[in-house]
Amino acid sequence: MPPLSSPTDRLKKLFQRRPCWRLAPLAQSLGYALISVRRFLNHLGYFRSYTHNGKWYTLRGSPQFNREGIWHHKTIGFSKHGSLTATIRHLVDHSPAGLSARDLAQKLQHPCHPLLTHLHQDQILDRVPVAGEFRYLSTEPSRNHRQREQAAVASPTSPATSLSTQAAVLMLVEYIKHPELSIEQLAAHLQPQRELTVTPERIRLFFQEHELKKTPATPNSGS
User: Fold this and answer.
1) Is 202 exposed, middle or buried (0-12, 13-18, 19+ CB in 10 A)?
2) CATH dotted code for 7-79
């Protein structure tokens, strides 16, 4: 009679059938409690996804990471750097001039606007406005200094720089919804809700470039 397979051997066979598993189905397939499955996974080595709230698991030898340490199986993202926060910090720390939320979303294939705001508020990341959006920087002093210098080179020197495509679309949506707003009010209305730095000067230049007319807001008349 052949010897029974060990739980870890059976676990490896399950991952050969499917590279990514959630914990509950894995425990059900093995016939073990969750705490035991976690112990088996620790023995073999694993990665948890940085997407889907870290609920997906893959064995350590499965991912074929790209040069930035990211691997995707369908919509599930894994990082050799660990959690989403740890991965963002690594990508930002190793970028020459910082990264925007759009840059990070493209690299991670995962939106991270709210998390970036929290990381900045918690002083885990620094940020500077560049070309109508925030660029996130390392907080390590020497690296931060180099990134700020490079970001300044990438940033247009004129204060009256036209809007990026993303900022222009968002601004026009707000303008159509609220045509009564002045240019200053449009800029103030956009900033709290988006990861953008939209100044009145940029909006004014955008209207000029596209030969659009913006009627100044009419002040409320007193009685």
Assistant:
1) buried
2) 1.10.10
The reply to whether 7-79 and 85-154 are identical in fold is yes
pLDDT band at 142 (very low <50, low <70, confident <90, very high): very high
Per-domain boundaries in the chain: 7-79, 85-154, 165-209
pLDDT band at 202 (very low <50, low <70, confident <90, very high): confident
For residues 133 and 130, give the distance between their C-alpha atoms in angstroms, rounded to a whole number.
Answer: 6
Distance CA 171, CA 167 (A): 6
Q: Name the packing angle between helices 165-177 and 200-209 (round to 10°).
A: 90
Which residues have a Cβ under 8 Å from the Cβ of 30 and sit 6 or more positions away? 7, 10, 11, 14, 36, 37, 40
When pLDDT is averaged across residues 133-143 and rounded to a whole number, the result is 94
What is d(CA 138, CA 140) in angstroms, rounded to the nearest whole number?
A: 5
The pLDDT tens digits for 35-94 are 999 999 999 999 999 999 999 999 999 999 999 999 999 999 999 999 999 999 999 999
Q: Specify whether the CB–CB gap between 57 and 50 falls below 8 A.
A: no
CB atoms within 10 A of CB 180: 9
* Amino acid in position 190: L
pLDDT classification of 221: cutoffs 50, 70, 90: very low
pTM over 0.70: no
The CATH class for the domain spanning 85-154 reads mainly alpha
Residue 32 backbone phi and psi in degrees, to 5: -125, 160
Single-letter code of the amino acid located at 118: H
Helix 34-44 and helix 7-17, axial crossing angle in degrees, nearest 10: 80
